[in-house]
Design the sequence.
């Protein structure tokens, strides 16, 4: 059974209205950051890059964003979010020097943090047609918490579910100093989604299975978009975008990707 989100400390009441946005309309406004957990943990400060620019420097992130734009990423809100979130705070200290390279990195328990290009690409696909912040978003696979942090800047509310307790706790530790009060972390089976927070304006998965679980489709709002890696008939993993319309679901298969396998249960 899914546990109640542990971050922030309080959920919206069960009677709170649910967002059902159209693809081109933002839903709601972001909550003010007025509710805290406990005092923030000390911030880790890894070594500087060889260029002499510290990892805390905005110039380092700006350089990464410039590369993403050169690779074809266009959504201004996504690019701004990528430039705001300090990726080096979500990787092991020994790997911090590679944090702003376009590469995936191990985060423990056989899982990885996705390449910046993949994170930005999937969020951009989920936001396609939107002119402002999305409403409620569901992330499947919290991992170290990096993508949830990025999503917090492009959506009014983020529900992120992780099946591995060790990573769930790591994400809590990583996100606590940032005080992102529109992010809710859930320890539970991601294949079941999180119906209490739905319907969702967008759903994004960091793990790929044979098919998109029906629970995710049921929790997607009309006009919402789901982005997930899925096994194709040819046996390869590819990004799939599913748009829910009044008539049903529209499915688009895009480029090949490589994600960890989608699994059920908790561990």
Sequence:
């Amino acid at each position: 059974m899914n546990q109640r989100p542990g971050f922030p400390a309080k959920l919206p009441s069960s009677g709170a209205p649910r967002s059902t946005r159209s693809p081109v309309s933002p839903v709601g406004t972001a909550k003010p950051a007025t509710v805290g957990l406990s005092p923030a943990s000390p911030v880790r400060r890894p070594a500087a890059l060889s260029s002499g620019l510290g990892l805390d420097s905005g110039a380092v992130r700006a350089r990464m964003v410039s590369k993403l734009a050169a690779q074809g990423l266009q959504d201004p809100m996504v690019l701004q979010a990528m430039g705001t979130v300090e990726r080096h705070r979500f990787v092991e200290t020994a790997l911090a020097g590679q944090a702003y390279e376009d590469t995936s990195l191990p985060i423990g328990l056989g899982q990885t943090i996705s390449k910046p290009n993949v994170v930005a690409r999937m969020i951009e696909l989920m936001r396609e047609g939107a002119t402002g912040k999305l409403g409620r978003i569901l992330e499947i696979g919290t991992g170290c918490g990096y993508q949830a942090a990025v999503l917090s800047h492009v959506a009014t509310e983020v529900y992120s579910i992780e099946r591995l307790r060790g990573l769930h706790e790591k994400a809590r530790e990583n996100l606590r100093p940032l005080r992102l009060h529109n992010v809710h972390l859930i320890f539970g089976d991601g294949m079941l989604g999180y119906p209490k927070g739905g319907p969702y304006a967008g759903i994004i998965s960091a793990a790929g299975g044979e098919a998109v679980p029906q629970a995710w489709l049921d929790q997607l709002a009309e006009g919402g978009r789901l982005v997930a890696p899925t096994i194709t008939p040819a046996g390869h993993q590819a990004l799939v975008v599913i748009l829910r319309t009044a008539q049903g679901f529209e499915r688009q298969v895009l480029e090949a990707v490589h994600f960890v396998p989608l699994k059920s249960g908790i561990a």
